[in-house]
UniProtKB/TrEMBL annotation, chain A:
Residues 17-205 form the ABC transmembrane type-1 domain. This is Amino acid ABC transporter permease. It is a multi-pass membrane protein. The keyword Chloroplast does not apply. It comes from the Bacteria. Gene3D superfamilies: MetI-like. It is found in: Cell inner membrane; Cell membrane. Belongs to the binding-protein-dependent transport system permease family. HisMQ subfamily. PROSITE patterns: ABC_TM1. The keyword Transmembrane applies. Keywords: Cell membrane, Membrane, Transmembrane, Transmembrane helix, Transport.
Automatic annotation (TrEMBL), chain B:
This is Amino acid ABC transporter ATP-binding protein. Keywords: ATP-binding, Nucleotide-binding, Transport. SMART domains: AAA (SM00382). PANTHER family: AMINO ACID IMPORT ATP-BINDING PROTEIN, PHOSPHONATES IMPORT ATP-BINDING PROTEIN PHNC. Belongs to the ABC transporter superfamily. The lineage of its organism: Bacteria, Pseudomonadati, Pseudomonadota, Alphaproteobacteria, Rhodospirillales. Residues 22-256 form the ABC transporter domain. GO terms for molecular function: ATP binding. SUPFAM superfamilies: P-loop containing nucleoside triphosphate hydrolases. It comes from the Bacteria.
């Protein structure tokens, strides 16, 4: 039975935005938490730790996100516990985001001049204090623009969660389209909603970049 | 303060008989196959002021950076304040707390104000309270004569001011030894004097100092001993009067000829 695309369909799409935002937020917070440790491991003095972190990053950067979501979703079933699409999408995206953020932040940590590490060490600061009070505050300033930029990527990546059956914006679009058969209109609106989420962040990223460029002059 | 470093009369040799603060025995270091320190033997006594000079790549910076282990030596022993630098982190921490270092590029923390730069290590390494750390920081900022800059960021200061803050930051840890790694080499000429004056003030107060520098005027008027290094070796060491007027080795004569010919 074919329905016409009406205000109700639009509201359904609009309400699905919250799931896209929720999934993005969870993946970002989780990815940032794990990613910080990945970045620290990547810049560690201990070779084994560095290699393990490199392997982790290459694994997630070298395989498609969709395969990672499939492996988490179906892998959980194989290993005998049932993961609903929501949890699988959140876990898969968290792991993926942690690898990318880890690599972005590694670069930011390493962009802090060697002399800063030396001065802090010479003053007697050990690794935790040196990182917390000297290196990370400087790395954060460099990290903010690319991190916000990555958040835009992440929001768009959540659309893949539709394929494992999690009803976020893209899946809602498929559902509406199946009922109305107006793909151009439906997916046009879906795309516009993604744009409405991502564009302000892109603007913010560009603005932050300009601001830090001024601040570090 | 009188600009003592450009006086030309040779200082009277100062008898230094304090306890040994730094002892390096048979210290060797390689960067891959490049032998950067060859069998270094060095004793520094309390209150001694030593100037290390030599051509670039001679290992002089590496030598002082081994004393606080910014560079690890591969052979020999280094003892600072009776603590031997080995693989124990605790020993390294103890040594670094007592050894201050001033770098060519200042290396102030750009995200912290001048006074925060000075307060960080006393608070986080020595565990002093904020109020104490503030008092210590102001005391040494006054000593280097820039207390009025306390709340500025390093980027707002001139090179000479930044280097004086870097000296104050080290002094806040109340070190027993100060290492200077070409402290005036990155400065505009008109700012060299203010930094050297600060160092002379420290020397007059009896600080044990090792300075890698090309400021031969400073060496002449302040050093108790000048060490000449070339190709990873200590070629010659002598009191300044003897070092400059009567260098024993050919390599020292060549070096002095090059830097004093202008």
């Amino acid at each position: 039975m074919i329905r016409a695309f009406s205000y109700n369909e639009f509201l359904f799409l609009l309400s699905a935005v919250q799931w896209t935002l929720a999934l993005s937020a969870i993946a970002f917070v989780g990815g940032a938490t794990v990613g910080l440790f990945i970045a620290l491991a990547r810049t560690s003095d201990v070779k084994a730790v560095r290699l393990a972190a490199t392997g982790y990053i290459q694994l997630f950067q070298g395989t498609p996100l969709l395969m990672q979501l499939f492996l988490v979703f179906f892998g959980a079933t194989v290993m005998g516990f049932d993961l609903n699409p929501w949890a699988a999408a959140a876990l898969g995206l968290t792991l993926n985001a942690s690898a990318f953020l880890g690599e972005i932040w590694r670069g930011c940590i390493q962009s802090v001049p060697r002399g800063q590490w030396e001065a802090a060490s010479a003053l007697g600061l050990r690794y935790p204090g040196l990182m917390r009070y000297v290196i990370l505050p400087q790395a954060v300033k460099v990290a903010v623009p690319p991190t916000v930029g990555f958040l835009v990527q992440l929001i768009k990546s959540t659309s893949l969660a539709a394929i494992i059956g999690f009803t976020e914006l893209t899946r809602a679009g498929q559902i509406v389209n199946n009922a109305t058969f107006q793909p151009f209109l439906v997916f046009g609106i879906v795309a516009a909603l993604y744009f409405a989420m991502c564009w302000p962040l892109s603007l913010l990223s560009a603005r932050l970049e300009r601001r830090y460029a001024v601040a570090t002059r | 303060m009188a600009p003592a470093y450009d006086s030309t009369d040779a200082p009277v040799p100062r008898p230094v008989s304090g306890e040994v603060v730094i002892r390096m025995e048979g210290v060797q270091k390689w960067y891959d196959s490049f032998h950067v320190l060859k069998d270094i033997e060095l004793e520094v006594r309390k209150g001694e002021r030593i100037v290390i000079c030599g051509p670039s790549g001679s290992g002089k910076s590496t030598l002082i950076r081994c004393i606080n282990q910014l560079e690890k030596h591969q052979k020999g022993t280094i003892t600072v304040n009776g603590i031997t630098l080995d693989s124990h982190h605790r020993h390294l921490d103890q040594v670094r707390r007592e050894v201050g270092m001033v770098f060519q590029q200042f290396n102030l923390f750009p995200h912290l104000t001048v006074i925060q730069n000075c307060m960080l290590a006393p608070m986080k390494v020595r565990g002093t309270t904020k109020a104490e750390a503030q008092a210590i920081a102001m005391k040494y900022l006054e000593r280097v004569r820039i207390p009025e800059q306390a709340d500025k960021y390093p980027g707002q200061l001139s090179g000479g001011q930044q280097q004086r803050v870097a000296i104050a930051r080290s002094l806040c840890m109340n070190p027993k030894v100060m290492l200077f790694d070409e402290p005036t080499s990155a400065l505009d000429p008109e700012m060299v004097k203010e930094v050297l004056d600060t160092m002379i003030g420290l020397a007059e107060d009896g600080m044990t100092m090792l300075c890698v520098t090309h400021e031969m005027g400073f060496a002449k008027s302040v050093a108790d001993r000048v060490i000449f290094m070339d190709r990873g070796e200590i070629v010659e060491q002598a009191i300044p009067a003897e070092f400059f007027s009567n260098p024993k080795s050919e390599r020292t004569r060549n070096f002095l000829g090059q830097i004093l010919s202008h």
